[in-house]
Amino acid sequence: QVQLVESGGGSVQAGGSLRLSCAVPAYTYSSSCMGWFRQAPGKEREGVAHRHRGGGDTYYADSVKGRFTISQDNAKNTLYLQMNSLKPEDTAMYYCAADPACRPIGLWLAGAAWGQGTQVTVSS
């Protein structure tokens, strides 16, 4: 089973920044659409940012546009999420995922490869 590994979470004050990293197995990295999701306590998992395979078209949730940036390092097979101007409502467990079929992100909960998650906590 493909396993992604996230890192970089932590606790910051509102207005601060964090950069999340996700190590992706090489074959999955080159063949999949990849993205970041988050899940706050009591809420459904939601897509934050994702991009098409090969670093193509990129999409962001309205709540993070202008503050979060998804990027990748092809030499390291690593996906990143740079999060700036963090708000308390960004507090959640953040997950990276990779879907070789590049389906709509609402379908990724079943069938995509997922990491174990990294916690982000933003205090006011």
List the helices and strands and how they pair.
Layout: E1 5-7, E2 10-13, E3 18-23, H1 26-31, E4 33-39, E5 46-51, E6 58-60, E7 68-73, E8 78-83, E9 92-99, E10 113-114, E11 118-123
Parallel strand pairs: 2-11
Antiparallel strand pairs: 1-3, 3-8, 4-5, 4-9, 5-6, 7-8, 9-10, 9-11
The helix/strand series, from N terminus to C terminus, equals EEEHEEEEEEEE
Secondary structural class? mainly beta
DSSP summary, beta strand count: 11
Write down the overall geometry: globular
Count of helix runs: 1
Question: Stretches where pLDDT falls below 50 for ≥5 residues?
Answer: none
- Our estimate of the beta-strand percent is over 45%
Major pleated sheet = 7 strands, mixed
Q: Helical residue percent?
A: under 10%
- The overall pLDDT average reads 94
Distance between the termini: 39 Å
Q: Gyration radius, to the nearest Å?
A: 13 Å
What features would you describe in this structure?
Helices cover 5% and strands 46% of the residues. It is globular and about 40 Å long. The strands form 2 sheets. Strands 2, 4, 5, 6, 9, 10 and 11 form a 7-stranded mixed beta sheet that branches. It has 124 residues and is mainly beta. The longest helix has 6 residues, at 26-31.
